[in-house]
Amino acid sequence: MTQIRDIGGGPRVLLKRLREFTAAALEPQERLDRIVREIARNMVAEVCSLYVLRADSMLELYATEGLNPGSVHLAQLRLGQGLVGTIAASARPLNLTDAQHHPAFAYLPETGEEIYHSFLGVPVLRAGRTLGVLVVQNKTMRTYQDDEIEALETTAMVIAEMIATGDLARLSRPGIELDLGRPVSFDGMALSEGVGLGHVVLHEPRVVVKDLFAEDGEAESARLNEALGSLRLSIDDMLSRRDVAFEGEHRAVLEAYRMFANDRGWVRRIEEAISNGLTAEAAVEKVQSDMRARMMHMTDPYLRERMSDFDDLGNRLLRQLMGRGPETLAETLPKDSIIVARSMGAAELLDYPRNRLRGLVLEDGAPTSHVVIVARAIGIAVAGQAKGAVSMSENGDAIIIDGDDGQVHLRPAPDVEAAYAEKARFRARKQQLYRELREKPSVSADGVKVDLMMNAGLAVDLPQLADSGAAGIGLFRTELQFMVAARFPRAEEQEQLYREVLQAAGDKPVTFRTIDIGGDKVLPYFKEAVHEENPALGWRAIRLTLDKPTLLRTQIRALLKAAGGRELRIMLPMVTEISEIRKTRAIIDREVQHLSRFAHLLPTRIKLGAMIEVPSLMWQLNELMRAVDFVSVGSNDLFQFVTASDRGNTRLSKRFNPISVPFLRVLKQIADAGFANDTPVTLCGELAGRPLSAMALFGIGYRSISMAPAAIGPVKAMLRELPVGALVDHMKKAMNGMGAEDDMAAMLKKFAADHGIELDR
Ligand code: PEP
Ligand code: MG
């Protein structure tokens, strides 16, 4: 066998010849013809054929040595059909001594194929995608050796570059597109609403390897070893840093990287590719591409995750080899950028200029992940769980994201694009309408004034105060500053943020909620937070901060200082009993005394409120109302605890209805108790932000609600058409007459329809 290969010249000679062909001024077809001829000669094969995958999932014969030349661009196989189709569909090589007896064998008469027994086919891969299939065949029954498979794969990589650079697209018949431009859709998870049409910006742009061929294999091996050494050192260095940001999950990922960076199998595969004549970076890319292809066919989530770690490691190694640090396109970002990333930190998203972002597509991403919270705050559409989006995308590809249902369309077909362009225009028209409403008073059709406030949590939210026309900030989630940081924010940093918020609010009221951590809001650097069986019912929010009074005192002092000379509103999350309010008030009093001793300017007035999120408060409403200056219903948590259904569990998310008679009775009882005790009541959960549920709230007596800034326009538009007095009467009668199972939502929709109120905004 060695002898036969020596006749052909071996893989290094083959690669050298390929390099001459790619450098020569040849027409693409001529170049391909010479390549297949050279491969056949080099591998002492009677046949060498290249099939290219088209957008219609057909594999078209693009060049052949040994089969009927007249069948080029005519012979074709479906993806999955025959041996070639099987290779393309599985993205794995097939090495057969007797191909004709393989169950997938299909005979194409137009190729004039004779009896060729042995068959070796490899997928043409780029970034893990199959772009075609390269085949050699022999009449004799021979077994191709591992190094021949490796050589054919390396050649296939060169051809993949030719396809990717558009060289071969010129050979296709009019109206036929290659698979590289095929539309792909991802059925992701809706994480932040909105529709974005734009172009892909890969968060971690793929390093483009330009130099594929190497003269000096030893020099390339040395380069690889040096880069591997630096890579291992940099990982060790990150691990040895006692930096809090690398604790917990981050640490586990790095430990895995360290293990992989020393993985012999991985390094050996790269070395093999170098020994076949590739540069070190092309060799890394080749191995990475094979891995990606395998990853796409893997169903085991654990293995997929491990493969992705290798993928990340490959990227790092490429950057080492090409002497580049991690880069982003932040400076040269296109105007309609849709960022595509595997995962991303919240701070990284904020590095992009906001006015150029149209959306964010994540392969990971959950509703409560920090980056999603930030994306929602800055008002961009997000789709998560779009598996494979990174490897299928190229920088600059057209892409559409629908944050309302989680759909992502990569390289969309014209009709899909037209439909979404219409949807985006429709949304823009509505946004314009809401902007026009911004300065209009938030009063109902019959003159009832309602305060429409917004929820916020980061400095990036502040411009929305003016943009949305909110009456103030009804809920400032102070924990978000803690969640996006790598360590506990210092007292001065907290004070600085609170000052900025109050300054931006001007005369408008702001209600700061003390840190609500624990539950699903974890801080990686908070070492005392132990794993809990039921974190939502655990050591969280006011329970935690009362046990860690330094945390609470620091925050209260920062708030008192920031609000010097004006009213300060402080709200406590997850209150369960009234003693928690008393204890907090004592801490506030002590801090006030402390600051006045040092002659600090104090707030003119301090109002202390409680969130109603824990059902136990329902049986002490009068005492509660008398113990505070205001209350705010956290309907997200209250509903989850009343119905015993985890708010983050997607299986349950549509099961129980918050605008059902029983839950509205709960909410009405709170509103009535507030009225009776002269204690202002507001509601700041997601219920406030949907026109239908907001309408229900007005109908049971709520006159102040707080919601995401984007919801204010639609709710205000509804309010201004709503006869609140008539609705209150109607709901009173309905609530008295209705049973627990009656359909309140349908009743409200009918009321809206009868009064010409548009709810579906
Ligand atoms: C709520 O529980 O309704 C609420 C507003 O608080 P969060 O969503 O921050 O838990
Ligand atoms: Mg809550």
Folded structure, characterized:
This protein is of the alpha/beta class. The protein has 4 domains: 2-179, GAF domain (Beta-Lactamase); 184-205 and 328-423, Phosphohistidine domain (Glucose Oxidase, domain 1, 3-Layer(bba) Sandwich), CATH 3.50.30; 217-322, PtsI, HPr-binding domain (Enzyme I, Chain A, domain 2); 438-754, Alpha-Beta Barrel (TIM Barrel). Helices cover 44% and strands 16% of the residues. The protein has 27 helices and 22 strands. The strands form 3 sheets. Strands 7-14-13-9-10-11-12-8 form an 8-stranded mixed beta sheet. Strands 21-20-19-18-17-16-15-22 form an 8-stranded parallel beta sheet. The protein has a 6-stranded antiparallel beta sheet with strand order 3-2-1-6-5-4. Helix 8 (264-275) packs across helix 9 (280-296). The radius of gyration is 32 Å and the shape is elongated. The model is unreliable at 1-5 and 242-249 (pLDDT under 50). The protein binds phosphoenolpyruvate and magnesium ion. Phosphoenolpyruvate is lined by residues 475, 477, 516, 613, 634-637, 684-685.
How does the SSE layout of this entry go?
Blueprint (H helix, E strand, L loop, with lengths): L1 H7 L1 H14 L4 H15 L4 E7 L4 E8 L10 E3 L3 H9 L3 E3 L21 E9 L2 E10 L7 H19 L19 E4 L1 E4 L2 E8 L14 H24 L7 H14 L2 H12 L4 H17 L4 H21 L15 E5 L4 H5 L6 E6 L7 H8 L3 E4 L4 H4 L5 E5 L4 E4 L3 H24 L13 E6 L6 H6 L4 E5 L1 H5 L7 H15 L4 E4 L27 H7 L1 H14 L4 E6 L5 H20 L7 E8 L8 H7 L2 E4 L1 H8 L18 H17 L3 E3 L7 H9 L4 E4 L1 H11 L4 H14 L6 H11 L7
Parallel strand pairs: 9-10, 10-11, 11-12, 15-16, 15-22, 16-17, 17-18, 18-19, 19-20, 20-21
Antiparallel strand pairs: 1-2, 1-6, 2-3, 4-5, 5-6, 7-14, 8-12, 9-13, 13-14
Bound molecules: phosphoenolpyruvate and magnesium ion (MG).
Phosphoenolpyruvate binds next to strand 16 and helix 22.
